[in-house]
Write a structure and sequence with these properties.
GO terms for molecular function: D-xylose 1-dehydrogenase (NAD+) activity. The protein has 266 residues and is α/β, with parallel strands linked by helices. The protein is built from eight helices and seven strands. Bound molecules: NADP nicotinamide-adenine-dinucleotide phosphate.
Length: 266
């Protein structure tokens, strides 16, 4: 007698089942001119989303638009350092595009600098671009004209906020601020019909990590990679996690931080 059981009824495989589908959804991606933001925009368009992509560089924004699958996408140039203008800018964009189903805020800046070398204007610059802009985007996104009920806001924090990163304290603090903000906003915006979560990537192969790499010898950079049991991450590794947090797959998740780190923090 065999221990193997088999179904009494055979159902055909549901090949159309795709809970990650973003068909019919409109998603804004910031930082879409490079690295993680660009890869995310392309990835989300392949899942069926209509993309509103933003960045500062017009040529690279056009290149992203040209790489998207599907139709109806738009690009909007905007400098998020101009935090006073974020809310009126979002209102203008959403008046044109209609309310959004999701916002993936990928734009960010990183500059390694030990605390003894830090000047107040550097702190101001990093905190404004990485943290204040994130908070003003939440204020804008929660407006009725800017999102539909059940919308999802996804931030990109960093493993640097969760594990010591010597010489990187200002950046780490800015990304730690995002983690605290997600905890608060994840509950505060429930009444607006918005879920809020973040991904926290470790080292991902992008122009930003290239800058960091340029500061180190090849040997020392290899040591950094070796801290990641699964090796250096790719932009699509983060894009997949962002897609999960935007799609119905994460309907019951808010206020969470999803580490995407190749085992770095394990
Ligand atoms: N790469 C990593 O290892 C890593 C690890 C953890 C977290 N992260 C985070 O992931 C995010 C994306 O990083 P990345 O590696 O993809 O970097 P990246 O390739 O350097 O891209 C940065 C993006 O941010 C945009 N940006 C920067 N400042 C801006 C501003 N003031 N206004 C509007 N857009 C602005 C840039 O736009 P323009 O080029 O058009 O100016 C660009 O699209 C950042 O938040 C970063 O902190 C990266």
């Amino acid at each position: 007698m065999s221990d193997v059981l088999t179904p009494c009824v055979t159902k055909p495989a549901d090949t159309g089942f795709n809970p990650l589908s973003l068909s019919g959804r409109t998603i804004m991606v910031t930082g879409a001119t490079s690295g993680i933001g660009q890869a995310s925009a392309i990835y989300l368009s392949r899942l069926g989303a209509r993309l509103i992509v933003t960045g500062r560089n017009p040529e690279r924004l056009q290149a992203t638009l040209d790489a998207l699958s599907g139709e109806g996408h738009q690009g909007h140039l905007f400098d998020l350092a101009d935090i006073e203008k974020i809310v009126p800018w979002m209102k203008t964009v959403c008046a044109e595009t209609g309310p959004l189903n999701g916002l993936a805020h990928c734009a960010g800046v990183q500059a390694t600098r030990p605390i003894q070398a830090v000047k107040p204007d550097f702190i101001q610059e990093v905190l404004t671009q990485n943290l204040a802009a994130s908070l003003m985007l939440a204020q804008a996104f929660r407006l009725k004209a800017c999102h539909v009920s059940g919308a999802s806001l996804v931030y990109v924090s960093s493993s640097a906020a969760l594990k010591t990163a010597p010489g990187n304290v200002v950046y780490a603090a800015s990304k730690g601020g995002i983690i605290s903000a997600v905890k608060g906003l994840g509950v505060e915006l429930v009444r607006d019909g918005v879920r809020v979560n973040a991904v926290a990537p470790a080292m991902i192969d992008t122009p930003m990590s290239d800058q960091f790499r340029a500061l180190l010898s090849e040997e020392n950079f290899q040591r950094v990679i070796d801290l990641h049991p699964l090796g250096l991450g790719r932009p699509d590794d983060v894009a997949a996690a962002i897609a999960f947090l935007l799609a119905d797959t994460s309907r019951w998740i808010t206020g969470s931080i999803l580490t995407v780190d190749g085992g770095f923090l394990a």
